[in-house]
Structures are given as C-alpha cells and as structure tokens.
Amino acid sequence: MTRKKIFVFFLILFAFIGSFTLLNRDRYFGKKISSPYEISVICRSGSAESSTSVRQGIDQAAKDLNAEISFITLSRENNAEEQVSLLKREIRNGANAIVISPVNSEDLKQPVEEAMKSVPVVAMQSTVESIKGLPLISCDNEKLGSALAQAAAGNGRVPRRIAILRNSMDCSSIRQRYSGVMKILGSGKNKIEYWDIPNGSQEAYDTAKGMLQSSMADTIIALDASTLEAAAKAEQDLLKTGSAEVQIFGMGRTNTIVSLLDGQIIDSIGVENEYNLGYLSIQTAVDKINKKQNTDYPSINFAVVNRKNMYSPENQRLLFPFSR
C-alpha cells in the first residue's frame, strides 16, 4: 500500500471516528437523563377546585424539577382515616416523597413518623405538631388570622356581634388562625359567639343558613375555605328573601369565593400565596430526596383582599390561578 493510500485510509478512519463521537456524545459524555421523581401530594380537602392555585404551583415545580406528581384529594373533607390509608398506599406504590396537608396531629402522628423512615415527608399548610424535623411549608397562620380579624374589627369604635365559624379545630393551621383572630377580638367590647360547622358542603350550608336566620350576629368570620364558601352561599340565598345583611370575612380561596367577593357578598378574605405554597412544597420534597440539608423553610406571603383591592396586580396573582 502506498503512502498516499495509507494517508487516505487513516483520514477516512479519523473522519468516521469523529462523526461517530459527535453523534453519540450525549450517550457517552453527556449527562444521563434521570428518571423523574415520583412525588405524591395528599390533600385534606375533598375538592380539587379548592386547590387550583396550589396545583398550578405544583405542576410548574414538577416541570422545572423533573418530577411526576400524584395529586390526591379525599372523598370526604378532613377524613383522617382515609388520609392515613392513602399515605400508606402511596409509600407501598413506590413514591420517592410525600407532600401532605395533615388533617390533624393526633391521627397522623404515628403514620407520618413511620412514613418518614422510608421516604421524605413534607407538610404543606398544616403540620403534625409533635414531630420534630418535619419540614413545613406554610404562611404564618396566626398572623393571617390577626390580619383578617383586624379588618373585621374596623376602627373598633362600634362594638359588633361576631360569630366565629369553627370547623376542623384539631388541624394546626385552623387552630393557629383562630388564635390570631382571638388575639385581636378576644379582649375588646365585641360580643363573640361560636358556630360549629360540620364537614360536607350541604351539611355546612344548612347549618350556616340556620345560624344566620336565628343569630343576632352582624359579622361572621370563617377559618377555612369550605366553611367560608358554605356560609357565603347561605347568606346570598337569604338576602334574596329580604334577610338583614351580615358582613362576612374568611380565609382561603375558591372560584366561588372569588365570585362572591366580587359580588360583595363576602367583605374580605385572607389568602396565602397558594402558587408559592405548591411550588415550594415540591421543591422541598426534591431537596429532601437529594439529601440537601435545610432547616430554614420560607414563610409563604399572604394578603387580606376586599372588593376594592382585588384587582390590583399583586392580588390578581393570588386570586386568579392563571394571572401570572
């Protein structure tokens, strides 16, 4: 073989090797594409609609962080037994992490402690108070309660008859909101009464409607979205019959709540940044899967929103899931 032919042979060989390497560089030299993180999110509500904004933040985090989400609501509001069963099921099914809004501390303590031995667990919005080291992503619920109570109290010159609607008081976030409300209203001249509202949308509506008809309260404060929605719907229906108007304040958002706020059936709502709540809960779960050490978890921002300020740019982002 002549030198010229040898040169051409090696030239072709090097060209082939170069082309092969270029075409397969990702396989041999690039980062391997890892399987997505399997994360289960277990709510304490029975309605996906009440979690629209939270779900939007969760979905964006899943896209950004290579996660697949199983988003699970309960068949009945605040059903601790079902939540425990779902927690065990998701671990058996191979979830890499669990994000959970615990119904209460008493029923969830042992199941969550057991779950934490197998996978990372992140508490979202409410927590299991007796478990050390359980990450919590939430706003300051006590401050949220105080801020809403301050709006309900107004200038404080005219005493009011205020009804506080109680439901799921064994849930940490609800109890903290109640504590914040009472810090503002408990020592004033206002007359306070308490309405115990059951779970279930129809039962809650019926109870709230009956109390609105029989009570002399001129102001009501609801501590969660489902109770607020039930009471506001009842008030809307009673106004059609000529009943006296009651000022309604509450916490949480659904599309129905936003509509009733816009229609001036609800006076003001306290609402946390649910998009950030969902996003940061998934981000924390992914960090825990990757064993990142972090004990300083951010507090979610919140606002008290009324008809006058609901369309400000910052409040639109809180109230309308797709205003981003």
TrEMBL record:
<feature type="domain" description="Periplasmic binding protein">
    <location>
        <begin position="51"/>
        <end position="292"/>
    </location>
</feature>
<comment type="similarity">
    <text>Belongs to the bacterial solute-binding protein 2 family.</text>
</comment>
<protein>
    <submittedName>
        <fullName>Substrate-binding domain-containing protein</fullName>
    </submittedName>
</protein>
<dbReference type="InterPro" id="IPR050555">
    <property type="entry name" value="Bact_Solute-Bind_Prot2"/>
</dbReference>
<dbReference type="InterPro" id="IPR025997">
    <property type="entry name" value="SBP_2_dom"/>
</dbReference>
<dbReference type="InterPro" id="IPR028082">
    <property type="entry name" value="Peripla_BP_I"/>
</dbReference>
<dbReference type="Pfam" id="PF13407">
    <property type="entry name" value="Peripla_BP_4"/>
</dbReference>
